[in-house]
Automatic annotation (TrEMBL):
It comes from the Bacteria. This is Phospho-2-dehydro-3-deoxyheptonate aldolase. It holds the Pfam family DAHP_synth_1. Keywords: Amino-acid biosynthesis, Aromatic amino acid biosynthesis, Transferase. InterPro entries: Aldolase_TIM (IPR013785), DAHP1/KDSA (IPR006218), DAHP_synth_1 (IPR006219). It comes from Pseudohongiella acticola.
Length: 359
């Protein structure tokens, strides 16, 4: 028998630090002007592609994770002119991933640990994260995130044009409920073992009416009821083996058809599809481009992990030693490679995409 109530109530909680209300951060850093136009355009663009009304492809490209907001802005300034140049063919959305789901433990991203030192200054993370997202949107680049935390969307989601639910959370009922209430399109990845049915089930769940408990913008606990999200799709990210090739895409189309879900598939060129060898993303991109040239009608987008410089680095003990523009999570292709690869993809698909039978 427990001796005191404390033994059964919050026994393992060391501390609880209050955070500002989401509405406070939104008042301090409001979404207005050019940034708002970018988010509206991003939503419409991605949804138009999923609905088959816009023949372009969505390209979700950028660092595996953001750990330095100034470097992220440097990357955004490189990406923006390319996005403008290729916008007739590709809708480029920048990965601005702040929340990292770890297989076990590790650095959890800018929101949870902005100082990269285990100090977990979440309020600071939310503030610098929101400011960065505003700045990138103000530049005219729409933003992609992974929805991992179930509360942080109240602080940031108004700035997002496309959302992923990752391989580690696609099967999570609470993430599916959250996705059902998210305003942007949501991509569900197959799980880390390669199971596709969890992503198909996730779409069925997230497109339905749901109810979940969360906090309001004013920071009050509330029961949220959602109408269901009609813009959900699958992301093939590979598992134990890659799953980007024609036979996997055809099998995925069949599963979606069986479940009466629109045949919209994004291919993640990284993760299981690259066997975590970052250069292999280019082979995946080539293969996907060839599939579309050969008549594929279901692939609506690709994802690439790209940074200013190639590869990755462990977080050094002395943070002064961190290398500029290099990932501290998964390895990425570098900027010059990214630019060449996306230009080539656009030039091969420019005349093909408008002839596809979609929608
Ligand atoms: O995309 C990033 C990583 O693949 C993901 O966060 C898991 O990382 P980990 O296996 O190194 O923890
Ligand atoms: C964590 C990611 O991917 P996945 O969920 O596929 O592992 C990611 O895209 O950063």
């Amino acid at each position: 028998m427990p001796k005191t109530k404390h033994e059964v109530d919050n026994f393992h909680i060391i501390s609880a630090e209050e955070l500002p209300q989401p509405t406070q951060l939104k008042r301090e850093m409001p979404l207005t002007g050019d940034a708002l136009e970018t988010v509206l355009g991003g939503h419409r663009g991605v949804k138009g592609i999923l609905d088959g009304k816009d023949s372009r492809l969505v390209v979700v490209v950028g660092p595996c994770s953001i750990h330095d907001t100034a470097v992220a802005m440097d990357y955004a300034r490189l990406l923006k002119p390319l996005a403008d140049e290729l916008k007739d063919t590709l809708l480029i959305v920048m990965r601005v991933y702040f929340e990292k789901p770890r297989t076990t433990v590790g650095w959890e991203g800018l929101i949870y640990d902005p100082h990269l030192d285990g100090s977990h200054r979440i309020e600071h993370g939310l503030r610098i994260g929101r400011q960065l997202m505003l700045d990138i949107n103000a530049l005219g680049l729409p933003i992609a995130v992974e929805a991992l935390d179930l509360i942080s969307p109240q602080y940031l989601q108004d700035l997002v044009s496309w959302t992923a639910v990752g391989a580690r959370t696609t099967e999570s009922p609470t993430h599916r409920k959250l996705a059902s209430g998210i305003s942007s399109a949501v991509g569900f990845k197959n799980n880390v073992d390669g199971s596709l049915s969890v992503a198909v089930n996730a779409i069925r769940a997230a497109s339905a009416i749901n109810t979940f408990i969360s906090v309001t913008e004013e920071g009050k606990v509330a029961a949220f009821r959602t109408s269901g999200n009609p813009h959900c799709h699958v992301i093939l990210r590979g598992g134990k083996e890659p799953n980007f090739e024609t036979s996997f895409v055809a099998a995925c189309e069949q599963e979606l058809r069986k479940a009466s879900i629109a045949e919209n598939i994004m291919i993640d060129c990284s993760h299981g599809n690259s066997r975590k060898q970052y250069e292999k993303q280019l082979d995946v991109l080539q293969d996907v481009t060839a599939q579309i040239e050969a008549g594929n009608n279901s692939i609506v987008g690709v994802m690439l992990e790209s940074n200013i410089h190639a590869g990755n680095q462990p977080i050094p003990d002395d943070l002064e030693e961190i290398q500029y523009g290099v990932s501290i999570t998964d390895a990425c292709i570098d900027w010059p490679t990214t630019e060449v690869a996306l230009r080539e993809m656009a030039s091969r698909l420019r005349s093909v995409l408008p002839t596809r039978k979609r929608g």
